[in-house]
Structures are given as structure tokens and as C-alpha cells.
Specification:
Radius of gyration: 19 Å
Number of helices: 10
Number of strands: 13
Distance between the termini: 51 Å
Structural class: alpha/beta
Length: 325
């Protein structure tokens, strides 16, 4: 019998992560069906699962579609009412799903939810990818409650609330399957990074809400599939962020903001080049050309309606780096 919730882990050559973290997911997810979508791994992930986790269902993609495309492809075969898209480097905790299902059942306008995301290695602190719920500033820079750029807060219970947010982290992303497919899933052109922010933005533009609850928590390693210092990550984050704004921003904000961001990204490129090396400077340039190359198709994917106000704070980058906030 199909359960309401499907916990779905996308795997690509992640046997070591599955070995370390899948036991906690199985132990604390008795109310869910558990699936592994395998993105055409070349290690022995599949054999490991078959030998050790007979209750886990395996879906095999015929190639590596990336994070966005991999989920889009694999989720076609999963019919549960709710999805939890979970990174393979996440440790689940007792009763982690119940508070989230309770919110879904009580409020049909809520499309996606994330729990509190703490660092696996520094367990009293929030983790970079999501922390206590994602927000965005008026320049399109994503940040989180509990994490501003690279600065992380200690968890002292300050975010033990339930509240509306702008985006839920893709490392532990609960969503109604109906809402996922009404938005045609993730934008597969993103490959990885910020595809969940784009999806949440589209959901908000369609009148849905995104929520966070501090009553549920998980621990995330981070960087399990693409290292935080990777130039490819720099490329994907900047290209996808620009594409996301082109898809979701209303006029006239779209025109001035895209132009302003192009200027700021030039400054960021020099900063990355000095701090992290020439490949990161090159990644910024590549990202812009990648954005231009996708612009026509991105424009076609714009929705009919964009909300005028989309941000929670203004000028975050200046307040943080120049104002020390």
C-alpha cells in the first residue's frame, strides 16, 4: 500500500554516503516509502542497496541528468501525495517527518516545506544549504535565517518557529507532488544549484506558500556531490541565479536588476579570482555567456504573472560586507 510520503534520494556514485546515512533515514521514516533514484552510477551503489536495504525501492535513470533532471526523470514513477527530496549526505532524526506532514494536512496553500538544517560536523551550528529557511534580497542574492553568505549562526533555539519563507533547501525539500508537477518540476537546464529556489519562486508567483518548521531537524554534511570551493559550483550558481531572475521577476525590476547584477558579478569575478584563483574568475565569465545562451528559452518559460514584491531585505551584500551586519 502506497504511503502518503515518499522519501526520495538522488544518487550518483554515492555508495559511501548511502552506507553512512541511509540507515538513519530507514530507521526514522517508518511512515514513508523510501526510494533511491540512481543517476546512472558507475560504482557499486545498486548492488549495495540490493544486498542491504530490501525495503528501499530503486529507480534507475539511464544517464546522469544532474540534480534537477535526475529528480524530474525519476519522480515520474513515484505516485505518493508528498515528496521529500533528500540529499544522500543527510542524517535524519527521530520524528523528523511528522511535523511537516501535519503542516501539509492543515494548510492546502502550503506547497513546500523545509526542516531545520544543522551541520553534521559542527552540530550546534546551522548548515550552509538552507539553515532555518531561505530568503532573498532585492538584488536576487539568496540567504537564510541562520546563514548570511558564509557566516553561520549557532543554533540557540532562535529559529524554533514555524513561518513562511521564500525558498526551501533542496537538500531536504518537502513538496506536494501535485504542486511539483503543476510547475513541471525543476528547470532541468539548471543541472544543479538554485533549481529549488526557482521552483519555489514559481510556486509563490502562482499563489502558493513556502514554509519552514523548527520542530523537525536534520544534519547535513554539505558539499557531498560538488565541493563548496568548486569553480563549477561558482559557474552554476551565477548562471542559474541570473536565469532564475529572468524567469520570475516582474517589469520594470527585471531590466534594472539584471543590468545591476551584471556589474556586481564583474566585481565578484575579480574578488573570486584573487581569493580562490583564476578558474573562479573564468567561471563568472562563463556563467554570463551561459546565461546569454539560455536567455531566449528562459524567456519562453516565464509565467503569466510575477509578484511585484519578492524580497525580505534590501541591499544585503552592501549591508553585510560594507556595513558588517
Amino acid at each position: 500500500m502506497t504511503k502518503k510520503l515518499a522519501v526520495v534520494i538522488l544518487n550518483w556514485n554515492g555508495k559511501n554516503w548511502l552506507e553512512k546515512f541511509l540507515p538513519s533515514v530507514v530507521q526514522f521514516s517508518q511512515n514513508a516509502d523510501i526510494f533511491i533514484i540512481d543517476n546512472c552510477s558507475t560504482d557499486n551503489s545498486i548492488q549495495f542497496l540490493q544486498d542491504n536495504f530490501s525495503t528501499v525501492q530503486i529507480i534507475k535513470n539511464n544517464e546522469n541528468y544532474g540534480f534537477a533532471g535526475g529528480y524530474n526523470e525519476g519522480l515520474k514513477e513515484i505516485k505518493n501525495k508528498y515528496y521529500c527530496l533528500l540529499n544522500s549526505d543527510v542524517e535524519a532524526t527521530e520524528n523528523w517527518t511528522e511535523p511537516i506532514l501535519d503542516i501539509f494536512e492543515k494548510n492546502s496553500s502550503i506547497a513546500a516545506i523545509q526542516p531545520k538544517i544543522l551541520s553534521f560536523h559542527n552540530r550546534n551550528y546551522f548548515e550552509f544549504a538552507g539553515a532555518a529557511g531561505g530568503l532573498i534580497d532585492n538584488l536576487g542574492y539568496p540567504y537564510c535565517r541562520g546563514r548570511i553568505f558564509d557566516d553561520l549562526e549557532e543554533d540557540k533555539g532562535q529559529y524554533d518557529d514555524e513561518t513562511e519563507i521564500f525558498w526551501a533547501s533542496g537538500c531536504c525539500f518537502f513538496i506536494r507532488s501535485k504542486d511539483f508537477w503543476e510547475q513541471k518540476g525543476f528547470d532541468e537546464r539548471f543541472f544543479a544549484h538554485q533549481e529549488e529556489i526557482d521552483l519555489c519562486w514559481r510556486l509563490i508567483n502562482s499563489g502558493k506558500k513556502i514554509f519552514y518548521t523548527g520542530k523537525s531537524k536534520v544534519y547535513h554534511v554539505g558539499g557531498g556531490t560538488l565541493n563548496k570551493q568548486s569553480a563549477q559550483k561558482t559557474y552554476l550558481n551565477i548562471r542559474n541565479n541570473l536565469s532564475m531572475m529572468l524567469k520570475n521577476l516582474p517589469f520594470p525590476k527585471l531590466i534594472w536588476l539584471i543590468f545591476f547584477r551584471l556589474c556586481l558579478d564583474g566585481i565578484s569575478g575579480v574578488y573570486f579570482g584573487l581569493k580562490q584563483g583564476f578558474p573562479h574568475l573564468l567561471a563568472v565569465a562563463r556563467a554570463h555567456f551561459g546565461f546569454y545562451g539560455q536567455a531566449a528559452e528562459t524567456w519562453k518559460r516565464r509565467q503569466n504573472h510575477q509578484k511585484k514584491e519578492f524580497y525580505q531585505t534590501k541591499w544585503l551584500i552592501f549591508k553585510h560586507f560594507l556595513g558588517g551586519k
